[in-house]
Amino acid sequence: MMRFLLLFSRQGKLRLQKWFTPMSEREKKKIIRDMTTMVLSRQPRSCNFLHWKDLKIIYKRYASLYFCLAIENQENELLALEVIHRYVELLDKYFGNVCELDIIFNFEKAYFILDEFLMGGEIQETSKQIVNRCIESSDMLQEDDSSEWYEVELFG
Amino acid sequence: MSDVVEKTLTALPSLLSLDSQPGSAKLSSTSKLGNLIRGITELTSKHEEEKLIQRELTSIKDQVSSPNTSMRQMKELMVRAIYCEMLGYEASFSYIHAIKLAQQGSVLDKRVGYLAVSLFLNESHELLLLLVNTVLKDLQSTNLIEVCMALTVVSQMFPKDMIPAILPLVEDKLNHPKEIIRRKAVLALYKFYLIAPNQVQHIHNKFRKALCDKDPGVMTASLHIYLQLIKENSEGYKDLTASFVTILKQVVGGKLPMDFNYHSVPAPWLQIQLLRILSLLGKNDQSTSEIMYEVLDESLRRAEMNHNITYAILYECVKCIYTIQPKSELLEKAAKCIGNFVLSPKINLKYLGLKALTYVVQQDPKLALQHQMTIIECLDHPDLIIKRETLELLFRITNGQNVTVIVEKMLDFLRISKDDYTTIDLVGKVAELAEKYPFETMNTVFSLGGDMMQPDIPNSFLKLLSEGFDSDEEDRKLRLFAVDSYVSLLQSEPNKLPQRFLQVISWVLGEYSHLSAELEPATVMTLLSKLLDLKHTSSETKSWVLMAMTKLCEGGVAISVAQDIYETHSSSMDTVLRQRAQELQHLSQDSELRGRVLPRDAGLMPLEVDSSLSFLDGFVSEALAAGAAPYKPPHQRQEELAQAKALSLEPYSLSLPISMSSCSIADRQSPTLMSMSSGLSGDSTDLSHKGGSTTLKLDGVKRVWGREGYLAQREPVEETAQVEVPSPLRSPSQQAEADSTQSQTPTPTVTPELEQDKQQLASSLFVGLGSQSSVCLMGKSDPTPQRFRRKAQGRASSSGASEKTPTSLGSTPSPVDNLLCNSLLDSNLVSEPTNQTPQASQSLDTTNGNCHEELTDVKENNPSLIHNNEEPDKPKDLCLSSHLPTELSGLSHSEITPLCSNQSVNLSACHVQKEDSLQLVIFIFNSSDSALQQMQLQVDSGELKVNYCLSLITDSPVEEVRSHSVAVCHYSVTVKRPSVHVEVLGMLSYQLPGGTPQTIQFSHKLPLTTFIRPLTLSTEEYGSMWLAFSQDTKQNLTLINDDQDPLTTTLNVLKKKLQLHVVEIIGVEGIVACQLVQDQPCLMHCRVHAGTLAVWLRSPVPDLPDCLLYHCQRALQEH
User: Fold this and answer.
1) Could you mention a single GO BP entry for this protein (chain A) (predicted)?
2) Which of B9-13, B80-84, B258-262, B441-445 has the lowest mean pLDDT?
């Protein structure tokens, strides 16, 4: 099972956080701090896996953004890397040439996509087409109402 | 694909940095969130950011509470509030509005509302209760999107207590026509199963329906639940194996729709899930494993494409193949596959290769041999993670011959490791290895591991020194060596040594420095006294030092040193130090007294402790006569204090019974602990109880330091001798393979010397692995195997927990020795945990069931028992239980636990609770091929009254047991003196035909609870008895708080687990009674006070209240 997913920038700024198990605010803060320092201090050409307490941390950098996924000990590291990659692909398909700014300004969309992809710390839907169809069907409802403030960003 | 993404992403990175780039034009200029984000990026200091956000939050706060704000605006405000929270600023005022938005908004507002709720609140937040209704409404909605959202939020976070409210609705969704809803419902139920398994128990058959769903997505989702269920109970799902295999076959064969493909690999997540389930099902089960061989082979074959995802599948396949019952062809293929991982230039794959090797190397050490050069490369890898994993692997292949090098490598890593978690883990591992290993390493371990290591490591080390080994001469050398090495350490730089190490040093010097002829006590005294002057020396260490000096002060110079020390420390603020200084001064003046108080080599002498402190009686009565206040036990003082101040100052936990249990169960007290604690722990009750039951028992303690410890000086010499023969282990083909590895590494130009270094390292690391190599090695150097045979013996003797006569082991037939010595690694394989039969335990009633836990506890503390059961023909519980005496056979009995065994006999025991006594049954199984003659079993205990009932074979105590048959002895036992665990000691003597008489000893612990019976009383009788009893104890216990009436619940738990009789419950008070067989009552008065249960126990029997209290506490903790 996955425990949490964090997205942060090269400067260590948090961009997205998803916790799959209950966690106190203090723990969350500590984890975020630990993850950013650990991951950002990794040398290039190191492997993408780390240990943190009893968890495995799988991270991958896409341009300026780090994706950092914590999984339980018996899980498969390579598969977790592919979870990250599939998420990036989903974001890319939705935003079209996704960049960090898309995620900053439309973070709620990034959350919605994540919720269609993972649920309760497990993979829910791996198909790009289906996840997209789900998100778009919700967005369609939105299009009727063109005064929406972020409409402009999404479709304009 | 990833390349494309990465390229496009790298084209844009500068966008984020500042505002004026063209990228910002792309962003909405109208969005308030956009403005906020841009505003923040323009700022230069944290302080400014804080100001800006606070302003933003104030404005959001104003708007959300305004009645004119529409839901749409609210949605926008929530997004901004989420953003502020993500930056680390609290926006708790918006939580309630997030819930409102989820409740009242349109479908899309709702979505943001739910998102905000799931980000803001966690499962225990009280506001979540307000969400329950919304979720209920949405689950019943006809709008699919609303249903989806509700299911999503439910699986994200939902209060545990409220699950029953929505469970029926979620269950209904399993029949929903839309597969996406069914799938989400299954995942939501999975989540419920994780947080509250008993609430979804009734729908297990619905899970089966989900498994058979026509939509593969729903089926995949249900596998999460099945993995969990099978993890907990693989027996119950064996029938599904064939179905899982069929599913996997279809997936691998590409029968699923294209939608499930990931980079043209069919449903990899599903494949891996299935492989994981199969490996759980096939573990230790030949017939189930056989069903899956074919599909595993197919999976290995199909996963050929060079992509991460196929490697992920392969890795899981390999793990599965090595977990289930082995099949040689598959193992061969899996080993090849691991080779591909290890040799891969991709670092992630290499890492997984090492992990896989670590996983399989215990079964197949030769595999490590094949990859030795790669492993050595990885040992020097710049990436610490790789290095750490390599050490893990080396740790698994450690044997007597390579331990030196491996420990060195681990210590090297410790020096650079910054992470506490890793350090603790690694220090533990090093210590484990060092337990078979010389002093230099232990010194390094003490210095580096420092005060972070577990306290029992130095204790067991000292114990080993004091216990010694078989020969006095060796012991003397060992101790002398320790003294010499410590003296030289103290002479160099003592200020850098950690406290624990200093304590070890002082004890050793105090005890053994007289062994060194050229060492004057005064020299040692001076060295030690320097420690007292060091700034960082803790007062605990100082008292160790003073204690050591007290043992040493002899001769003129020493006495004057002692005098000096006394003068400096006699006015110390620390009372313990002051007392030690006093003792030092006093004993240095009176050498005759010192000889009596601190005799030399007293380590092994049993220490008699007068638990009642009777020698002080005179002193006490004098003091009382002189007008001193009488002693009040702590709880009495406490109560008076509480009354005086109306403030509860009770301790958090029960210190006394816990320390008792730790001593009686763990049995790991060291001589040092004894010598120090009398002075250090001002609390003498602790000791007095210990003394009652155990007089510093040294047998039965694992002997952790093999005598090889002493062979320190010789080892390096042999090492170099081995190295001079250039890698005798490696066949030409391996050489070639290793060379090819070499060429694949990033630095192909390795200088010849470097190469040679590595080969040397390899030969020292991988020595003793694999059968051929070890044979060839033994042929070369005779002394080595000889040494290890001795070690193997040493371990064997230590594992026979109660085996007091190591000499008898020396006479064990040699084939056993050779087996151990030829393959130390293989012996690990043989010692699989003994089969416990769940069937036997199922039939037991709760009380006996309760005993199990206690007994298994005992067993865990005595791992040697389990390890020793390597005999293939060990009788199983089930067949033993058929030997129960007829009058007991109808009654339920506790689990049959092994007591001890040797080559010819196995002893096990169980007990049966009867109303007026406890029946102890001992089974003697003759596993040898000849009959045991003149067998005599003696059972004895200081705390128990043991009545011999009968033996099944003959009535006479002297008897014969035929080969491979069982004799049963049956005793009726009652308690003479209560203690937390009552120990039965026994000895079996027997004779093999034509052999000498042999004895085997054992001990068996029975928890006091097995002797407790309910005592039925009326309230009036209780009242009069209460006043008559003198022994009492008070303590606060945790209250079980999951009910309207916590007192009744708690008492019922106690009643059930400990067989107490609840006499009456009046309001917040309850009275309980029980008796110890036979007729030793104990009364308990309970009162709920400030959220805890204040209990007061009274009994005419000393120690009974304390012991019972301990069990009450445990029962409640376990609940």
Assistant:
1) intracellular protein transport
2) B9-13
Among A106-120, A125-139, B19-33, B82-96, the range scoring the smallest mean pLDDT is: B19-33
Does A111 sit within 8 Å of B268, measured CB to CB?
no
Q: What is the DSSP string of A39-82?
A: HHTPPTTS-SEEEETTEEEEEEEETTEEEEEEE-TTS-HHHHHH
Interface contact B217-A125, CB threshold 8 A = yes
Establish whether the linkage from the previous residue to B585 is cis, with ω within 30° of 0. Answer: no
The CA distance from A2 to A124, in Å, is 12
The per-residue pLDDT for B526 is 82
Distance between CA atoms of A95 and B707, rounded to whole angstroms?
Answer: 69
For B:82-141, CB contacts with A below 8 A are 82-83, 86-88, 107-108, 111-112, 115, 119, 122-124
Q: How many CB pairs under 8 A join A and B?
A: 192
Taking the domains of chain A in order of start, what are their residue ranges? Answer: 2-155
Q: How confident is the model at residue B400 (pLDDT cuts 50, 70, 90)?
A: low
Task: With CA atoms as reference, report the closest residue to B289 among B256, B335, B322.
Answer: B322
Question: Inter-chain contact B351–A49, Cβ cutoff 8 Å?
Answer: yes
- CATH number, span A2-155: 3.30.450.60
The predicted pLDDT at position B264 comes to 86
- Transcribe B192-224 into DSSP letters: HHHH-GGGGGGGHHHHHHHHT-SSHHHHHHHHH
Question: Which DSSP string do the residues of B395-447 spell out, in sequence order?
Answer: HHT--TTTHHHHHHHHHHHHHH---HHHHHHHHHHHHHHHTTS-HHHHHHHHH
Of B31, B347, B382, the CB nearest to A153: B31
**ipTM value for the complex:** 0.90
CA distance B578 to B575: 5
**pLDDT at position B184:** 94
Q: Are B941 and B1036 in contact (CB under 8 A)?
A: no
The pLDDT of residue B436 is: 56
| Residues in A 82-101 with any Cβ partner in B closer than 8 A | 82, 85-86, 88-89, 92, 97-101
What are the tokens at B34? Answer: 């956009």
Contact A111 B115 (CB under 8 A): yes
Q: Are A101 and B26 in contact (CB under 8 A)?
A: yes
Determine the pLDDT at residue B777.
29
**Cross-chain residue pair A119–B9, CB shorter than 8 Å:** no
**Whose structure tokens read 């595993």?**
B296
For residue B7, what is the nearest residue in chain A, using CA coordinates? A63
pTM for this prediction: 0.54
Q: Does A27 touch chain B (CB under 8 A)?
A: no
Nearest residue on chain A to B267, alpha-carbon basis: A126
Substitution target in B71, B187, B223, B230 with the highest count of A β-carbons within 10 Å is: B187
CB of A65 within 8 Å of a chain B CB? The answer is: yes
The minimum CA-CA distance between A48 and chain B, rounded to whole Å, is 7
Q: Which residue has the higher pLDDT, B456 or B715?
A: B456
Which tens digit of pLDDT belongs to each residue from B127-140? Answer: 888 889 999 999 99
* CB contact B345 to A (< 8 Å): no
SS3 B749: coil
The sheet carrying B997-1007 orders its strands as B959-961, B932-940, B981-991, B997-1007
What single-letter DSSP state applies at residue B359? H
Asked if A77 and B12 come within 8 Å (Cβ–Cβ), the reply is: no
Confidence check: pLDDT of B497 > 90 = no
pLDDT for position B834 = 39
Q: Which two tokens stand for residue B1102?
A: 């000393």
Which domains are delineated in chain B?
A: 127-232 (1.25.10.10), 885-1009 (2.60.40.1230), 1015-1118 (3.30.310.10)
Contact residues, chain A, for B22 at CB < 8 Å: none
Residue A109: predicted pLDDT: 92
